[in-house]
């Protein structure tokens, strides 16, 4: 059976030992640090730290390879779009212009623009792996219990857990429907033209939507029959108390965020400028 994308992968690692609430707070601190700064030194540190955290999580690269390839394609398109719509953004930000070569009109390639695009992509490289790691190392039920523990309503927490559990379910349904349609003679392989494959994909999307709506109704009825939401509190089978590793990790991430804020804004400018 094919490996399911963006579903929980059980491993023995320091990342898996953290509670879901700890990982969520760390992701928020991490994302805040990466998004607020354009300091290249901080971004490089965050990217290298992401690689290290991935290494100790025991998640294999091949298990998320398809998602990473899709992200790389998105980043390429995003970089091209940024340059097309604002080819002089780097020049305006850094205040200098070192032209490498001309393309015509206002479109020229400068060191400043390339450096700006490099920083933009580094921000994505810092945040996206952390988000993927959060999804694949967090058990949905345990995550819901942790969210409720830090003060979020158990109704919202349970909804988040259902959404995370639905990711592998919809992938299995897609594969089963695709195999059933191919058995009926609908070709989705590369042998067909792209336009034909897109048209044939409609024979999968419609049944997938209908089956998803049917599952939603079944789950809603089951929860209603069990009086879900009647009481203000509930117990959790997968609940885990915060341990020493959670407190230490949260402390380190808070320190990292504070250092990022200080380095980024101490001179009143979010951008690290190597051209001055």
UniProtKB/TrEMBL annotation:
Its main location: membrane. It is found in: Membrane. Pfam families: CbiQ (PF02361). It is a multi-pass membrane protein. InterPro entries: ABC/ECF_trnsptr_transmembrane. It comes from the Bacteria. One of its GO terms (cellular component) is plasma membrane. The keyword Transcription does not apply. The keyword Cell inner membrane does not apply. The chain crosses the membrane at residues 42-59, 66-85, 114-136, 247-266. Keywords: Membrane, Transmembrane, Transmembrane helix. CDD domains: EcfT. This is Energy-coupling factor transporter transmembrane protein EcfT. It comes from Cytobacillus dafuensis. The lineage of its organism: Bacteria, Bacillati, Bacillota, Bacilli, Bacillales.
